[in-house]
UniProtKB/TrEMBL annotation:
This is MBOAT family protein. It is found in: Cell membrane. GO terms for molecular function: acyltransferase activity. The chain crosses the membrane at residues 23-44, 51-72, 92-111, 131-150, 170-192, 204-223, 261-281, 375-396, 424-443, 455-475. GO terms for biological process: alginic acid biosynthetic process. GO terms for cellular component: plasma membrane.
Amino acid sequence: MNIDVQQAIQILISFITTQNENWSMSSIPFMLLFMVFMMGYLLFSGRIRSVYVVLFSLFFAFKANGTLMWLLPANALLSWFFTRRMMLLERGRPRIFGLAAVIIIELLPLLYFKYTNFFLAILGDILETNFAFHSLILPVGISFYTFQTISYTVDVYKHRLPADVSLLDYLFYATFFPLIIAGPITRAEVLLPQINNSRPTDSYLPYTGLWLIICGIIKKVIVADYLVQYNNWIFTDPTAYSGFENLMGVLGYTMQIYFDFAGYSDFAIGTSALMGISLPINFSFPYQSLNLTEFWHRWHISLSKWFRDYLYIPLGGNRCGNIRTYLNSFVVMLIAGLWHGASGMFFLWGVLHGVGLVAHKFFLRHGLSRIPDILPIRIASLLVTFTYVAFAWIFFRAPNLDTALAIINNIGHNLNLGDALPFLYARPLWLLMLLLGLQLHTIREHDYDWLRHSFISSHWIMKLMLTALVIQLAINISQDNIQPFIYTAF
């Protein structure tokens, strides 16, 4: 018995003190720990509860980042302190320079860890020299929490938020654990008012959270994590497979990245809802979009709104004529591409989306809006948009340009629909997951809302049975092959 207790203590100490590179909200260890966390969360109230959440958030960050987790509280403390100091400056030029200085301070860790090697490599190519520089480990979630601190600073500068937010409330906002790994990027005006009023008063919000967590398990653990296995083979060596197999890999990744990222957002929003905190949605059936502009209103909504409010509009938005509008849209997509990583492939992905957005805005002003809104046109628009987005994902996923071009060449020159039947025999479950992903995108929004409300209003036994069924299905299909969330790399 003593040996069992000692082993249990050692396991606990090891868990507390050891980083886990696979740490995420879809893992069994987190789910078990979250249940323990909720006991304390429901027990505490007021400032004690806020301190409790901040400490848990820092522990969550440590599990994901190890010692690099200190960047998170350091970034938050500097942001809070210098934003307050900025608002003490005289209006006009002094405060504008103060705003620029604070944003630079908030950006420095992101620029250093994410882009140092990229810029040194470019400089080395220009000078024809080799820089002996160690590879930097990118802290998980640094892009997301950096954008949150920047949005807070800008909103305070524009008097959308008060400058006297307490340090504890700001730490709660800046380190809130559901948002650390991959967002959604949440504005302070959304989260701060809920901090001291976040205990659920009825069952609607917690049951909504449970529904979203179930959706997250289906999207991430069941669909995305199964699709990724075959997709990786294609993007590693596309020439080893037929054109049809390459096409399936591209379609598979198109589904995988959506279900992976949307699944994480469901986990984050659902976990917050269990705590009585309501966060806005981050995805709204993006592959139902009829054009690229609509796609960016439905995909990664929190990032799209961030770029709109803090980059596109300050650049002039659509207020300075057509040419300036096209240029602003293109520049924003270039920056969005580089935001995902310091890579020429992400830059190309941004170029493709920038060109697509400019083309849509141009043709919308030159006759596109006069095309009748009838079913055949809508279907054609949906297929064109989906095909273009899937094509752009090739450059997003491929490790280099040669791989991307090999995939495109294989699909263009070696596509044989006769390979479909052997593919079905070889990978029936994978194809079923792909078809399931495509089918889920045909659900109309009001039908989804009906399903959600039906779950929320159902008997607790039905909720328990459905939750247990989904978890068991995830265990059977995943076979301990849970993949890291794609956006932890950004």
